[in-house]
């Protein structure tokens, strides 16, 4: 995800997803530690799995993380998450450009 290609709605979704300290910690953990499965990530972040799932869902909907379901050697399904490549160049100009594409644009 590159910011110059973000629509206004995509920018709002990404910023909303990153506006929570738990989600920032999730992105940081995945960025520094690499891909990880939910149970291990929950232990590392000291957060419940259900709450982590909610945060991961929000990050995935924003295109900031991706997931892949894999089977372990003992047959357990593990959902692995990793950061998606993204860069958000937040400047007055990129905001002005993004505003023009908002679907809920009160200026129009």
From TrEMBL:
InterPro entries in the cross-refs: ArsR-like_HTH, HTH_ArsR_DNA-bd_dom, Metal_resp_trans_reg, WH-like_DNA-bd_sf, WH_DNA-bd_sf
Transmembrane segments: none
Keyword Nucleotide-binding attributed: no
Keywords, ordered alphabetically: DNA-binding, Transcription, Transcription regulation
Single Gene Ontology MF annotation: DNA-binding transcription factor activity
Record Pfam families: HTH_20
Boundaries of every HTH arsR-type domain copy: 13-86
Name listed for the protein in its UniProt record: Helix-turn-helix domain-containing protein
Lineage, uppermost ranks: Bacteria, Pseudomonadati, Pseudomonadota, Betaproteobacteria, Burkholderiales
């Amino acid at each position: 995800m590159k910011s110059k290609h973000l629509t206004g709605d995509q920018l709002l979704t990404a910023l909303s997803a990153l506006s929570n300290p738990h989600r920032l910690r999730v992105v940081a953990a995945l960025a520094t530690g690499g891909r990880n499965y939910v149970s291990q990530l929950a232990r590392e972040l000291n957060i419940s799995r259900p709450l982590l799932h909610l945060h991961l869902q929000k990050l995935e909907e924003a295109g900031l993380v991706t997931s892949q379901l894999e089977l372990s050697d003992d047959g357990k399904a593990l959902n692995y998450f990793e950061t998606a490549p993204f860069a958000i160049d937040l400047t007055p100009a990129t905001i002005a450009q993004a505003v023009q594409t908002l679907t809920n644009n009160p200026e129009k």
